[in-house]
Task: structure prediction
Amino acid sequence: MRKFKIFADFKEEEAYLNEMAKNGYFLKKYTAFGFYHFTDATPKELHYHVDYRKFKTQADFEDYQALFEDAGWLHVYGTKWSLNQYFLPKNDNTDDDIFSTKDSAALRYKHLYEMCYLSVALVIIYFSVLLIVYDFNLANMSFLTPGLWEMTGAKFWRAFFFELPFMLFRIIPAVLLLVMGIAYAVWGSKAKRSYDKMMEDEK
Amino acid sequence: MNISKYLPLTETTFYIMLTLRKASHGYAVMQKVEELSNGRVRIAAGTMYGAIENLIKQKMIVSVPSEDARRKTYQLSPLGHEILALEVERLKHLVEVYQKTEPEEV
Result:
């Protein structure tokens, strides 16, 4: 089973995964940008823990995995590139956490919102380049066939359908990126709020 | 360079650094710290990894060749030694001041 969900709060994400396990769905895989893949299993009370990290090298990622395994964690899912890393305690020490200080627990929220804001910045750069390419007039992204709208009948439709794929090719990526940019901005600001709240609570 | 900006060290960082005077991998540091602190300071895996990452970024520890293919080994750098020594001086001073003064003097 596959579910689409986006969390800006790791605690909520962990609670969601625990709830799914209780209903007989165990996390198998997580894929961008929020797809949770589950396998059917006997319902069980599990205590998931989510970490969020980027790795520079494969060796760093292996070292990370080895450290968690040594410390009694089962690495359920996560790749060098997946950012999200999912863990379950190997024993029944359900009180165990993957963080022992509030600072380090809060830091994953910081990593998340930094990644979101970076994505927003990339979308803004993309649109800046787009505006320059289209001479600061986004109408230039639409149909460009000269005199298209004055044409009639079969001639119009031929010209229209001939250019349609090219027009869509220009517009669809831009619309998708715009939607993604807005989604990342919302996601990032939510994660930032969680981070600020955690740092606030600490004082 | 102004190294006093690294001070004071958190208790976790202090324990990790003093353990890494001898080259060691992450989990061994976690065990050693628990032992040295009589079980009081238990560093969790995520916190440990983050601390290592941070200490490497600050050049206080370095990664040294390891016999273990999967586990990286780390050791305190000369800068790390210097900072650790400064922190020990700072703590010593605090204790001395405490011992030299009487409650009514302060």
In short: Residues 9-105 of chain B form a domain with the Arc Repressor Mutant, subunit A fold (CATH 1.10.10.10).
